[in-house]
Amino acid sequence: MSRKKTPKNKGASAPAASALPAVNGPRPARPGTARPGPEAPRSGPPQPGRPSLGGGGDFYDVAFKVMLVGDSGVGKTCLLVRFKDGAFLAGTFISTVGIDFRNKVLDVDGMKVKLQIWDTAGQERFRSVTQAYYRDAHALLLLYDVTNKASFDNIQAWLTEIQEHAQHNVVLMLLGNKVDSAQERVVKREDGEKLAKEYGLPFMETSAKTGLNVDLAFLAIAKELKQRTMKASSEPHFRLHEYVKREGRGAFCCRP
Ligand SMILES: Nc1nc2c(ncn2[C@@H]2O[C@H](COP(=O)(O)OP(=O)(O)OP(=O)(O)O)[C@@H](O)[C@H]2O)c(=O)[nH]1
Ligand SMILES: [Mg+2]
């Protein structure tokens, strides 16, 4: 894998389009890294209509794995904490070591969809660890930081890496995070939109700090994955691109 190095361990390597949940095989043991608990599905999502009980006591109908990827410091861990706990991790930046995960069950149009969300380390030195997890991911949220141009420039390299290691049909969404930091912004919204269009990706700007579009990003992923599982659904066809375009809020909306 070819990857540009930047002074702050900024990642980098390339593209893919969106796609469908694949059946997961058992996860190989990786010493020193977090792994799913007993609630993790061992052989793909359970069938709809046969509710399962997760190890945390959450009932769910279907389960999917979502991975957060992007340069170190773009806000992956904060995005996950915002989504899971509704809080913001302010203060000292503690860089993720290896990989970690959290579960959350969403109600998606009457179905309990469990997302097992993997928070990867953006630092280059953990790349070989995180690469091994791509193949099991049903969806990827690829983040850059709108206040950090290098993190945006590295998106293409991340897309290359995704293309190399993830399922060809993985659901992929591009997120420009930290839009609350208007003064420090160096990546315009239009630049993010342009890049996303170039690669055919759904795109939103988010803020883990204010919560802007955070729940929406995960809900959109869950809706897309659920739809792909329901082969002969009578529900209207869900269109991920249109949904995030329609529902996504602007950076100046809804400040606390
Ligand atoms: N203003 C602002 N700061 C944020 C936001 N999200 C994250 N941060 C800050 O950015 C820094 C890095 O956030 P993390 O979530 O730890 O970054 P990360 O992508 O997980 O980094 P690695 O674990 O090293 O890959 C922290 O100091 C956060 O407080 C956001 O939406 N707005
Ligand atoms: Mg982190």
How is this structure best described in words?
It is a single chain. The chain is globular, with a radius of gyration of 17 Å. The protein has a single domain (62-231, 238-250), classed as P-loop containing nucleotide triphosphate hydrolases (Rossmann fold). The protein has helices at 76-85, 127-131, 149-153, 155-165, 189-199, 214-229, 240-247, and strands at 52-53, 59-60, 62-70, 99-108, 111-120, 139-145, 171-177, 203-205. It is of the alpha/beta class and 256 residues long. The protein has a six-stranded mixed sheet, sandwiched between helices. Mean pLDDT is 80; it is low at 1-50. The chain has seven helices and eight strands; from the N terminus they run βββαββαβααβαβαα. α6 (214-229) runs antiparallel to α7 (240-247). Magnesium ion is lined by residues 76-77, 96, 119. Residues 12-42 have a biased composition (Low complexity).
CATH topology term: Rossmann fold
Mean pLDDT: 80
Strand content: 15-25%
- The CATH architecture would be 3-Layer(aba) Sandwich
What ligand molecules are bound, each kind once? Answer: guanosine-5'-triphosphate, magnesium ion
Helix content: 25-40%
Strand order of the largest sheet: 4-5-3-6-7-8
Rg value: 17 Å
Total tally of structural domains:
1
Broad CATH class: Alpha Beta
Distance between the termini: 42 Å
Classification by helices and strands: alpha/beta
Q: Which stretches of 5+ consecutive residues score pLDDT under 50?
A: 1-50
Fourth-tier CATH superfamily name: P-loop containing nucleotide triphosphate hydrolases
The tally of strands reads 8
**Which sheet architecture does the biggest sheet show?**
6 strands, mixed
Shape, principal axes of CA atoms: globular
SSE arrangement, N to C:
EEEHEEHEHHEHEHH
Count the DSSP helices. Answer: 7
